[in-house]
Each structure stands twice: as structure tokens, then as C-alpha cells.
Write a structure and sequence with these properties.
The chain is α/β, with parallel strands linked by helices. It has eight helices and 16 strands. Strands 1, 2, 3, 4, 5, 6, 7, 15 and 16 form a nine-stranded mixed beta sheet that branches. The longest helix is centred in the last third of the chain and has 25 residues. About 45% of the residues are buried.
Length: about 350
């Protein structure tokens, strides 16, 4: 039984509104698509979330989109661009039940507060715990795990999502999401640009934090790749292309190799079983240390921009995943294109399940 089960309510990068970044359950990772997208998925797969208990008479054995969306207890928001908070805003006043918490960086939550200003949208969010607004804004500190739900903690790390004249570097976030009883976790990136062209590169710090955990306690990474191959650096607009994602994964592989080397050296071992083995290693070609370093890791490709001009004969996210896969064969990592409505099981251990929605 998996520790986490995720539903990709929306996995695209726009501009189509029906498939924006949103990964949902009792915890929502971003909140681009919402009730409308959920309704479409339930029309296709009515029992996506199971059936209503037999002793509950509600006219239909299946759950409605509004019911399922109301199960969300908290939101994790990587940044405040509209394609990541659209449904959070639109649904805030429509859902009953207990108050929901919105977690993110302080600057992200300030942006969200500005939307709930009684000007752009009614005031439906507050920082205060004793106020009855539907949403409570809860800032996260960087580099520390914070409890956000039963048995679930999150560590937030900063990312660079491009550069503009107003703010300079536009800040985003990555989340290490941990199931506390098992100590298993996965890594979820918001929008991110490559370190190689960033004014303020941040990805290397995330890779260094992830490396010692791979694949033992961390074997699933969700990361964007907005554009297919051939996009120029000047037109990435704070996102990744297959060539840059491949370079980032190679950087992660080097970090993993370094972490394993440090672990061996820390135990005072030389890594070989005997003198005969050492001599054999010297005679045989030695592959680069990062080859095979990501064996057992799954990379989930998300936030692919829509193919508006019909250039490809297949969904663009699968085109992009194929392009990435061809560039990182030496790493022996599994590359997976996330489709809207996909059910994803993460960290498979026989423990409690936390369902997560990805809007």
C-alpha cells in the first residue's frame, strides 16, 4: 500500500485553463485547475475516487466534483502566478466545512493576500487563527520540516523562476514532502529555470539536499519541463527545456555520487572487497561516477506548455518526456510524462496513506 497517492487534477503549463498545475487530495500541491477540471475527470471516470458508502443515500453512488474538492484540508503553493492559484481563489468562498490552511513562502502568501483584498476578489483569507475567513495563510520557513497535516511534514527550499525588471529574481519554491512515520518522501518542484542561466541559481542546493536520500527514502521527483527541445535560452521565461532538464539531472547524479562517496569514506571503507578486486577495477574501463546514479528514481515531467499550433501528432508532454529520456540514458532514471487524471503512487510502504491532489 502506498504512503502517498496523488491525483493529477491538472498537469499542464497553460495557457488552456482546463489543465493547469494542480495535484490534489487531502493536501493540494498548487491550485491551478479546480472544480471544473475535476468535474470533467469524473465524467470520464465516475468512480475515480471510489463510491459512496452503501448506507448513505445521496441520489448517486459516485461523489460529485464539489464533494471531492471539499476534502482538501490544506494547500501547498509554490508561487503566486495565476496558473498555480486560480482554483484556490475562485473556490475560496464556495466550499463549506472547516477552515483550510494555505502554506507557502511569506512573499507568496503576501501576493495571495493582495488578491483577497476586496478589490480583485472578496477578502476571504487572513493570517490570524481566530478569524473566520475560509482560508488561513501559514508561512513556511526554509530548510526546516514543518507539520502541515497528520503524519505529513514539508521542507521548503527556494527556487529561481526567472528574472524581471520589477522584482529581479522571481522566487519560487520546491517542497520535500515527507511521511513522518516511515520517513519516506518525494520532491515537488514549482516553476524553475536552469542554474546555468539563472542570475541567482538555486537548484544545486536542492539537489545536494536530495542526494543523500536517493533512492533509499526519496525515489520520486516531480519537476517541470515546459518547452520541447530547441527553445532558446532567451525564450525560456524562467522554465526548463529537455536539454536543461537533462543537465539538471546530471547535476543531481553527480551530487548523489558524491554523497555515496562521502558515506563510504565516512565508514572508513575503500569500496572494494579485496586486493584482487582492486586490481581488476584498474584494468577495466571505469565509467563516470554519475552513470547509473539515479537508478531506481522516477522523474515525473509536469507543467508542459500546450501545443497551441498542433505541431506534434502526440500529446506534447509525451514528446518532451521522450526527448528527456533520450538525453539521460546513462543515468538509468525512469522518465514519466504526467497526464491529467493520472493516479500516482509514491513511496510504496505498508503504512498510512495521505492522498494528495495536484491541481
Amino acid at each position: 500500500m502506498p504512503t502517498f497517492e496523488l491525483i493529477a487534477l491538472g498537469c499542464g503549463g497553460g495557457p488552456s485553463e482546463h489543465n493547469l498545475s494542480s495535484y490534489k487530495g487531502t493536501i493540494a500541491l498548487d491550485a491551478g485547475s479546480g472544480i471544473g477540471a475535476l468535474g470533467r475527470l469524473l465524467q470520464i471516470t465516475p468512480d475515480l475516487f471510489g463510491h459512496r458508502p452503501a448506507d448513505v443515500d445521496n441520489g448517486s453512488p459516485e461523489y460529485s466534483a464539489t464533494e471531492v474538492y471539499s476534502w482538501i484540508r490544506c494547500f501547498l503553493v509554490t508561487h503566486s502566478h495565476l496558473d498555480h492559484i486560480n482554483s484556490l481563489i475562485l473556490s475560496a468562498g464556495a466550499l463549506g466545512g472547516s477552515r483550510r490552511q494555505v502554506f507557502g513562502a511569506h512573499h507568496t502568501l503576501k501576493d495571495i493576500e493582495g488578491i483577497f483584498s476586496d478589490r480583485i476578489w472578496p477578502k476571504l483569507a487572513s493570517w490570524d487563527e481566530d478569524v473566520t475567513f475560509p482560508l488561513q495563510l501559514k508561512p513556511l520557513s526554509t530548510d526546516e520540516y514543518a507539520t502541515i497535516s497528520d503524519n505529513v511534514s514539508v521542507r521548503m527550499m527556494p527556487l529561481s523562476h526567472g528574472h524581471n525588471d520589477t522584482l529581479g529574481t522571481y522566487k519560487c519554491a520546491a517542497f520535500f514532502i515527507r511521511h513522518d512515520p516511515s520517513n519516506r518522501e518525494f520532491l515537488f518542484f514549482g516553476d524553475v529555470e536552469p542554474d546555468s542561466i539563472a542570475v541567482s541559481p538555486k537548484n544545486r542546493d536542492v539537489w545536494n539536499a536530495a542526494a543523500p536520500k536517493i533512492p533509499g527514502s526519496l525515489d520520486a521527483i516531480f519537476i517541470e519541463c515546459s518547452w520541447p527541445s530547441g527553445r532558446t535560452d532567451e525564450t525560456l521565461y524562467g522554465h526548463l527545456s529537455p536539454e536543461h532538464l537533462a543537465a539538471e539531472l546530471i547535476s543531481l547524479a553527480h551530487a548523489v555520487a558524491d554523497a555515496r562517496k562521502e558515506e563510504v569514506e565516512g565508514r572508513g571503507q575503500d569500496g572494494y572487497e579485496s586486493g584482487r578486486a582492486r586490481k581488476r577495477q584498474r584494468r577495466e574501463p571505469i565509467p563516470p561516477p554519475h552513470h547509473g546514479a539515479l537508478r531506481g528514481v522516477r522523474i515525473y515531467i509536469i507543467h508542459c506548455k500546450d501545443d497551441l499550433h498542433g505541431i506534434y501528432d502526440r500529446p506534447v508532454n509525451h514528446i518532451i518526456a521522450d526527448q528527456v529520456r533520450n538525453l539521460v540514458k546513462d543515468l538509468e532514471v525512469e522518465i514519466i510524462a504526467v497526464d491529467q487524471g493520472m493516479q500516482i503512487s509514491v513511496v510504496p510502504l505498508p503504512t498510512d496513506i495521505s492522498t494528495i491532489f495536484m491541481p
